[in-house]
# Entry
Amino acid sequence: MSSFSRKAAYWFKRCANIPLLIIGVFFIGLLLLNEDASFTQSMVYEKEILRLKQEIKENKDSAAYYRSRRLEIERGDEALEYIAREQYHMKRPTEDVFLLVPSSSK
# Structure
């Protein structure tokens, strides 16, 4: 055995507490491999959190759009008439409405 390995073995026997090292390695392994607290599971949770935050942002934008549309309808007749004509194809009794549908190309 070389001098370095003898010194390392002596230090390990003299200074290192074997049961403490075994418990430490076991605890670290438990933290890394446990299903509820594992590193891979926390990465999955982090991706899910980011996806949900993006979805919340999209829903807030959508809610703001519909809130503004509702306020436009409540404020005046022009917006209400525009929505009734364009989205619901409503018309006045004296009007004729023609819907133009583009033909599908074959």
Notes: The two ends are 85 Å apart (CA to CA). The chain has one domain: 8-88.
